[in-house]
Structures are given as C-alpha cells and as structure tokens.
Amino acid sequence: MNSSLLMLWGLWDDVYQRCTRLRYIEKGANIFRVVLLRYRGETLVTTDHQVINRGDWIVKIHIHNYYFATLCKGVKDDLRLALLLRRHIMLSLPKLAGYLESMDEKEKIKGIVGTTMLHKGVQPLGFSISDVPMNGYFRYKRWYLRLLLRFIHPDGKKRVQSWKQDMPLKRVYMSKESLLERYGSQNPSPLGDLH
Questions:
Q1: From CA 156, how far away is CA 69, in angstroms rounded?
Q2: Considering the domain boundaries, does residue 98 fall inside one?
Q3: 44: domain range?
Q4: Where is the YkoP-like domain (predicted)?
Q5: Cα separation of 45 and 37, whole Å?
Q6: Strands 128-131 and 32-38
Q7: What b/e sequence results for 63-96 when a residue is b if at least 16 CB atoms lie within 10 Å of its CB, and e otherwise?
Q8: Considering only CA atoms, which of 35, 54, 69, 31 is closest in space to residue 145?
Q9: Structural domain contains residue 151
Q10: What torsion, rounded to 10 degrees, do the Cα atoms 132, 84, 177, 189 define?
Q11: What's the chain's average pLDDT?
Q12: Model confidence band, residue 144 (pLDDT cutoffs 50, 70, 90)
C-alpha cells in the first residue's frame, strides 16, 4: 500500500472510530479494538467446554486493520505477513486479558468473539473456530475484509482471488476463563519465545 493511500485510510479510520462504539485496548500498540455487547449468533462451545448462548454478554474483538496495514508496510511475502500478524496477536492478548479483568462488567462476560478470514493458526493460541451463516451481513463483511486484504497484501488483487476458496469467513472465540488463565496478570508471560 502506498503512503498516500495509507494516509487516507488513516483519516477514514479516525472518523470510523469516532462513529462506532469500538474502543482501543492500547492505541498504536495493540492489534485489537473491542466492544462490549450481547452475543447474537448461534450457540458456541469453547475448547474448555464453556457455552456462549445468544443474549450472553461478550467482548467482541476486531483486528485494527489500519494499524496492521501500517505494520505491514514494506512486507513482501505471505509467510512474513502471517508471522507478523501472529506475533502481534500474541503480544496483544495479555493486554486484552488485562482490559477484560479491569472491566466493571467482568463477572457477566462469557468470552471474546470475533469474525475473520485470518483464522489459520489461532487454535494453538486458545481460540475455537466455527462457520458463520452466509446471510447478507456476513456476505458484506466477507467482501469488505477481502477489499482490505487487497489493499494490505503486496500482491493485491491476485492474492485475494487465490484466497476465495481457502480463506472463508469464520467465527473465532474463547471463553473468559481460558483467556484469563492463558494470558491474565496472574500467569507467567506466554511470549518468552518471541523476545
């Protein structure tokens, strides 16, 4: 992505941030933005057998795509992009756990839930994965995320075309208990192999 386009995206992202309920975990240093809301999808069962039902309170997680695009500037290949994303997710999860621990609503929150095409390799981090219904909302979201990937990835259009079959939209989720057990303040850093 060239500098001018990235700058325009940054301006749009600032407007988008002001118009939504999304909140930064740590602006400019964390790949997640979040919102507290009631879950509206199908019943989810996490790897530690916790159940998230429709109407339960969750922290909805969103990859901060503009921030990730700034990190990707100059990266030329798929492997480096994937490793960069995974590293920043791992670095961001402990602060996400800390954010959840500090919330007044902590006791009623069941877990964290997100929707993404970038789901490969997240299960070892503690996430479960499930399909999403391909209704109008998720069709639009898949189109939007592919558009963003086209801008972020150095191969642009060519890469998005190749991802149509092997990068479906998925729901990723983790129970509150698993997040805090793995990444909470009472536990040793899970990032020792990254330093």
A1: 13
A2: yes
A3: 28-134+169-183
A4: 4-183
A5: 18
A6: unpaired
A7: bbbbbbbebbeeeeeeeebeeebbebbbebbbbb
A8: 69
A9: no
A10: 170
A11: 81
A12: low
